[in-house]
């Protein structure tokens, strides 16, 4: 479907990825591509393979077959650490924060792999460690400010409200300045107001910081408003791919996913 | 890895109008350093206040146990790796120091430092399984380390220089040419070591190294995904922890006891260190001192109570059992109600006190 060999402005190109768990197919020869600077939404019913796909993209799962082209490289398998190293940031469906650490410490931990000073330098507070820690702190503070989390900086994450925890997780991913940000249901379990706030932050991250975003979201309305590009999955297959308007008009998509919703009520 | 991501001024966050606004570095309020200086002053004044008995029999073991607690706390309270091998690693530090003193005739501070390094190396080796196993199973493997190390120091006489009593003892302890065998000398020397290692522990726990440890403790899978080198960090925690324990072990033999065998570092010792950090506070540096003070002072307090209230009518054996009973109850209580120990209770009390007029 996507024959984009002149991939100048394509940041991520997924080619023919298949994934199965002990014979059960989770993803079946899936291909799609993501333009640099866009917000791409993956939608589909539960069990459609959306989270599995994100796990393939940042190396938690190894696909059975297929290739991923990211920036100028292509790989079949990548280790999560290398994915992080290459600028792929990630948040999780079930919050994966460090619960007994403060907001600022959680954010700082996102910079861990950028650290160049070793533990001896940390132990004796040698100049390079001091410089690095001041620099990291400044960057983390900038991110906390961007996400309006400063007033919570010393709060232990486990004591924060759910919506704020989601935002801290975003801060931890953002602080490492990813080029591609994978968000797994960033608005799950939020009320309308919190969803609106989160959408605003995602839009800001995309527009102001120029970060490409791939997100999974169940709220169709929010997804259509927020994203430039929608990929629809059903039973591990792609059933729709295009702009929000195109996807909503696609009869296959309506049958597979939006079936219960009349097209008029979507927008 | 041809697009290796390196750090420079622009990679983290492109400067946008919105981000540029307030980049002023935050000033973390550090009223704590004042407390630290006050504490140091109090500690430095102790030899003028306390009797020789108090220094030798209570304060010195208290400081050494606090140091050992710090070692285990870095591993268990910060990096989340359980261990029952503390006694074994203390023994390694003590016996290695002894070897450096007797065979290589090194000076005391150098021998202790190298002894700590040997303990760190042994800790690193016994930490290797932590890459594969965790929790209960890791604890069992540390138990194996404890028994193996105890056995080694009994089985091979070379370690105690073929002495008939199978013990090691200090030839004479001199530090930079000064004899420190007086109570005051011992005290200041130990205080110096403890203050230095405490400062290092605080630096580590507040640095990226410490954050990596805590991240692994709280959720190791997420730590790996955000790019923390989990196995490397765990093994480093084992090594650093064992260094502290090794130094504490050497001080225990050569400064506190004078001479000792491997029985001083039995499983009982491992449990004692574990109790110190549970009662004092997991994941707290000050908690080690609180826990060590508690564990050294409780027997004295009990003794005092029985002497004054019951005029010595309570049998010593009964007292010991009461002591065990109190420890057991406290440990269960802390594990269930307040895993962060007395240190957390104190911070809670302090923050409550600072706002209490406004509470009603």
Task: Describe the protein in words.
The complex is a heterodimer of chains A (about 270) and B (about 350). The two termini of chain A are about 25 Å apart. In chain A, the strands form two sheets. A six-stranded mixed sheet of chain A has the order 6-7-8-3-9-10, sandwiched between helices. A four-stranded antiparallel sheet of chain A has the order 2-1-4-5, covered by helices on one side. Chain A is built from eleven helices and ten strands. Helices cover about 35% and strands about 25% of the residues of chain A. Chain A is globular. Chain B has a domain at about 50-265. Chain B has a two-stranded antiparallel ribbon. A two-stranded antiparallel sheet of chain B has the order 2-3. In chain B, α3 (about 50-80) runs parallel beside α7 (about 185-205), α3 crosses α11 and α3 (about 50-80) crosses α12. The N and C termini of chain B lie far apart (about 60 Å). Residues about 1-30 of chain B have low confidence and may be disordered. Classes of the chains: A alpha/beta (about 270), B mainly alpha (about 350).
């Amino acid at each position: 479907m996507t024959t984009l060999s002149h991939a100048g402005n394509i940041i991520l190109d997924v080619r023919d990825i298949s994934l199965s768990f002990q014979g059960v197919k989770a993803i079946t020869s899936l291909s799609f591509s993501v333009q640099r600077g866009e917000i791409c939404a993956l939608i589909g019913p539960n069990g459609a393979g959306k989270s599995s796909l994100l796990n393939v993209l940042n190396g938690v799962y190894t696909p059975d077959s297929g290739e991923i082209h990211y920036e100028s490289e292509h790989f079949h398998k990548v280790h999560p650490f290398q994915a992080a190293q290459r600028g792929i940031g990630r948040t999780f469906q079930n919050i994966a924060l460090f619960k007994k650490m403060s907001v600022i410490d959680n954010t700082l931990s996102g910079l861990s792999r950028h650290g160049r000073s070793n533990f001896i330098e940390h132990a004796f507070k040698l100049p390079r460690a001091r410089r690095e820690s001041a620099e990291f702190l400044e960057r983390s503070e900038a991110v906390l400010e961007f996400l309006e989390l400063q007033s919570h900086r010393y709060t232990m994450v486990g004591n924060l409200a759910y919506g704020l925890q989601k935002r801290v997780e975003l801060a931890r991913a953002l602080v490492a300045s990813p080029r591609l940000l994978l968000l797994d249901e960033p608005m799950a379990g939020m009320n309308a107001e919190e969803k609106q706030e989160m959408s605003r932050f995602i839009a800001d991250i995309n527009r102001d910081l120029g970060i490409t975003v791939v997100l999974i979201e169940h709220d169709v309305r929010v997804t259509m408003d927020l994203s430039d590009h929608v990929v629809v999955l059903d039973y591990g297959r792609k059933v729709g791919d295009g702009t929000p308007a195109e996807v909503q008009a696609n009869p296959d998509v309506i049958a597979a996913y939006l079936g219960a919703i009349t097209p008029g009520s979507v927008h | 890895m041809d697009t290796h991501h390196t750090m420079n001024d622009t990679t983290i966050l492109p400067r946008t109008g919105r981000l540029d606004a307030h980049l002023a570095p935050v000033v973390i309020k550090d009223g704590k350093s004042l407390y630290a200086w006050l504490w140091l002053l109090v500690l430095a004044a102790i030899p003028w206040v306390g009797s020789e008995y108090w220094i030798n029999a209570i304060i010195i073991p208290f400081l050494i146990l606090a140091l050992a607690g710090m070692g285990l706390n870095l591993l268990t309270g910060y990096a989340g790796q359980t261990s029952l091998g503390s006694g074994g690693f203390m023994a390694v530090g003590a016996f290695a120091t002894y070897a450096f003193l007797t065979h290589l005739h090194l000076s005391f501070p150098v021998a202790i430092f190298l002894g700590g390094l040997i303990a760190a190396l042994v800790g690193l080796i016994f930490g290797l399984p932590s890459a594969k196993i965790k929790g209960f199973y890791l604890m069992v493997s540390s138990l194996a380390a404890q028994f193996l190390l105890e056995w080694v120091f009994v089985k091979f006489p070379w370690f105690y220089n073929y002495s008939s009593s199978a013990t090691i003892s200090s030839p004479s302890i001199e530090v930079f040419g000064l004899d420190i065998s007086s109570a005051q000398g011992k005290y200041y020397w130990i205080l110096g070591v403890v203050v230095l290692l405490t400062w290092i522990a605080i630096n580590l726990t507040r640095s990226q190294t410490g954050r990596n440890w805590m991240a692994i403790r709280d959720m190791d899978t997420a730590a790996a995904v955000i790019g923390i080198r989990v196995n490397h960090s765990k093994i480093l925690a084992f090594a650093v922890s064992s260094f502290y324990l090794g130094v504490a072990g050497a001080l225990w033999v050569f400064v506190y006891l004078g001479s000792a065998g491997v029985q001083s570092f039995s499983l009982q010792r491992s449990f004692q260190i574990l109790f110190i950090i549970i009662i004092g506070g997991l994941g707290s540096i000050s908690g080690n001192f609180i826990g060590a003070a508690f564990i050294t002072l409780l027997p004295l307090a009990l003794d005092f109570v029985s002497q004054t209230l019951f005029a010595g009518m309570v049998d010593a054996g009964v007292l010991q059992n009461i002591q065990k009973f109190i420890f057991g109850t406290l440990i269960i209580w802390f594990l269930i109600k307040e895993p962060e120990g007395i240190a957390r209770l104190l911070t809670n009390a302090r923050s409550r006190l600072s706002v209490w007029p406004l509470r009603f």
